[in-house]
Amino acid sequence: MVQLSGDGSGFVRGLTWSGWGNATAQGTGMLEIDNCNPNCAQGSFTGYPATITLSNLTPYGNGTQAYANMVVSAPTAPNPTYSYKNLVP
């Protein structure tokens, strides 16, 4: 599972990955978004098919590498794209 928000209102579950360790890796799963109605604690989640693309494999620490950029694409979701850059310190 990949958490997209600090409050738990958005996450991608059921991921299947390909290309792990290559220049880019791609995961497919289900983006779950809380409608926060009447509030986020009592809202319900709706799922949307999603793809996560990881890129910019970056060294950190003692020879470890991590992907620094992540794009979540879910074309049928209310917000179809989430982009995160410079995730590696």
Annotate the secondary structure layout:
Elements: E1 2-3, E2 10-18, E3 25-34, E4 45-60, E5 64-73, E6 81-84
Antiparallel strand pairs: 1-2, 2-3, 3-4, 4-5, 5-6
What's this entry about, in short?
With 89 residues, the protein is mainly β.
Strands ordered across the widest β-sheet: 1-2-3-4-5-6
Structural class: mainly beta
Q: Distance between termini?
A: 21 Å
Number of helices: 0
Task: Bin the strand percentage.
Answer: over 45%
Q: Assign an overall shape.
A: elongated
Strand tally is 6
Mean pLDDT, to the nearest integer, reads 95
* Largest sheet, strands/sense/barrel: 6 strands, antiparallel
Helix and strand run: EEEEEE
Rg estimate, integer Å: 14 Å
- As for the number of domains, it is 1
Which residues sit in consecutive blocks of at least 5 with pLDDT less than 50?
none
Helix content: under 10%
Summarize the structure in words.
- The protein is mainly β and 89 residues long.
- It has one domain (2-84).
- It has strands at residues 2-3, 10-18, 25-34, 45-60, 64-73, 81-84.
- The chain has a six-stranded antiparallel sheet, with no helix packed on it.
- The protein is elongated, with a radius of gyration of 14 Å.
- It starts with a strand and ends in a 5-residue tail after the last strand.
- 16% of the residues are buried.
- The mean pLDDT is 95.
